[in-house]
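Hey, I was hoping to borrow your eyes for a little while. I've been puzzling over a protein and I'd love to understand its fold better. The fold is given in discrete form, as structure tokens running alongside the sequence. I'd be grateful if you could look everything over and explain what you see. No rush at all, and the record is pasted right below.
>
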Amino acid sequence: SRGVCIEPDISLISTLKQKRPGDLILNLGISTSVSAEANFYFFDGIYSAWNTFSKEDADQKMKESGLAYRQTKVKLETVENIINQYQLGHINFISLDVEGWDLPILQSIDFSRIRPEMICVETITFSLHNTMQKNADIINYMLTQGYKVYADTNLNTLF
């Protein structure tokens, strides 16, 4: 499969380009509106999965773990603008993992115009000191858009 990989963490861009030479790799973040830039909070090493645009989320992770984060600025773009700018045709698959912004971003997509065959969304919330919990709002929203739960990996739900 080939497509567009959107990654706000600049440290991952060269690896993505090396591993996925046929893809368009964009160093930016996805949002519900275009912004020149937004604060991006990132953790080093194995904790890079905690990277986020949410200061509250980064502060909570730091409080729970004692690990400090760093901050940089990253350009934001909407799903619609990326599709239009790069003249993307039919989209087979979207994988969305945007640390707390998943539902608003899904709500910003015009599913009457953009109808991916499958969408993978991180539907679990977790921290170091609480149990993982499914985000029922995401699942319910996708059901209202005519998608069905196809599979679930515990962390992600495939619609």
Q: What stands out?
A: Helices lie at 13-19, 55-65, 79-85, 102-108, 136-144.
